[in-house]
Design brief:
Elements (H helix, E strand, L loop, with lengths): L1 H17 L1 E3 L2 E3 L2 E2 L8 E11 L3 E10 L16 E7 L6 H15 L2 H17 L9 E7 L4 E6 L2 E7 L1 H12 L6 H7 L5
Helix pairs in contact: 2-3, 2-4
Length: about 190
Amino acid sequence: MIRSLLLSFLLMWALQAQALTLEGVDVPELLPATKDSPELHMRGASIRRVYGFVEVYVGALYIGDNTLADEQIIDADVARRMTFYVTSSRVSARRFTNAIQDGLSINVSKEKMEELSERLEQLVSLFDHKFVEGTVGYIEWHPESQSTIIAIDGNVRGSIPGKDLNDSLLKIWIGEKPVSERFKKEVLGHRS
């Protein structure tokens, strides 16, 4: 009896140690494997704020190979996912995609932006969805199909080919000029 109670306590403690809750959002430590994706481990999570104080979403970075050094993540051809949990009614699909385009413009060259232009238009069309507080979406790289999958509220909206697009998108959050240094640090798993 004592042994099973102790075992139950240890299991509950281990699960709580693995859980992360930000702004009331429970962010899972592990995303189980699916037919299209391997098991993904959370690298880190953070709250994205604009104007320094308006919280718009909780973002979490998941990686298939969590042993990668921070600087290897963008170049590595491994499964990865950036998940967004919308925490504000001020977020709309248009604002979200505008922020993506702004983040891209400071992280990739003008020539690269031109090269990506058709695929970026496709990306914007995949985000044509009503965002409300509680909306959950993700951008996931699938190495096997060499495509980026966009899903919102559990529904896959479509896919876009090319690792260069996914690499460019990831630079918005963890590149040399991220939208927020704090967000970058925390989604890479470095909490203060």
